[in-house]
Design goal:
Oligomer: single chain
CATH class: Mainly Beta
Shape: elongated
Strand order of the largest sheet: 3-10-5-8
Strand content: 35-45%
Structural class: mainly beta
CATH topology: Jelly Rolls
CATH architecture: Sandwich
Number of domains: 1
Low-confidence stretches: none
Mean pLDDT: 92
Amino acid sequence: MGITTFTGPIKAGNVLNTTGTTAGTIKNVGFVAMAQTASITQAGTATAYATSIVIPAYSHILNIQFLTTTAWNGVAATVSVGTSATSTELVVGQSLGTIGQQSAGPGADATRAGLWSNTGATDIVIYVLSANTGAGVGDIVVRYIQAENA
């Protein structure tokens, strides 16, 4: 199957401009949601791992999910997600102690919520940090709207 690559944000809709007040005459163009995935493990040292996921500048993060195929283990079966080796800028202490899909959010933190709303003026690399080493294996999926805030 072929893959098509676009270089800018993608918008879709069939009414480009509002010309009236009823459905079909009101602008209905919206941004397309994007997603990137990377494999992650709990093995090795408990230091931050720079994933292959890079979110474009001025994006809006919709969701961060984990698909765990081997549960995280040890004293703290959690991960944090960020934009640096600190790995706390986006998610703190998400449990991956069970197999399956887990959704993560910014929690009740204004700084993290603000970064989800607008990633800022530069592209960001997504880092994952396990609380300890262990046997955990899975994927991280980051869904976002590209350059919505540009």
